[in-house]
Here is the input.
Amino acid sequence: MGPSGSFGHVNITQSKRNDFLHKQHKVLTTDPRIYPLHEVGSPYHDLRISKLRINDSAIYKCETSTDPPLAAEIRLIVIETYSVIFGSPEMRVRKGETLYLLCLVLEVVDVPEYMIWYRDGHVIDYSREDVTVTVDDLTCSSELQVRNVSEKDVGLYTCAPSNAPPADIKVSLITLGHKPYLASLLLLLQ
Here is the structure.
């Protein structure tokens, strides 16, 4: 709430739970993530919430004890950041081909500090000559390329950005004689 003279006491409430968070210079919440900021003598009152959660979405109201009372309401909508690896949950590649995986972080406010790729829970060896990883801060994406895929490259791949839950995709090899396009065509004809 901004300046415009003496406000007397200021109360801050959250409408969803109708909880007083701050009343007459006293913090009334036991949640350590929520804390009001006010310097004595300053007309400014701020409410800080760290490590936002979806259930923090609510209308927050700041009200003075002046006559008539002044009030300001702020609607906070918390959007959850998430990551995805494009494609279906399973990917099949032929031995000797190149595996391309693209991971995007969506609904993001800040660029991730890092995006780490794992295979079966172990960090990908970026020093392998047949592995390339690129990161694009503009699109909040990371691409993993594994050239000349073999049996050692199959498994569960995970993209783990610093600011979102990880995304997974299972990669397996297409066995010799398996003709996925022909099988799909035959299913369509039935």
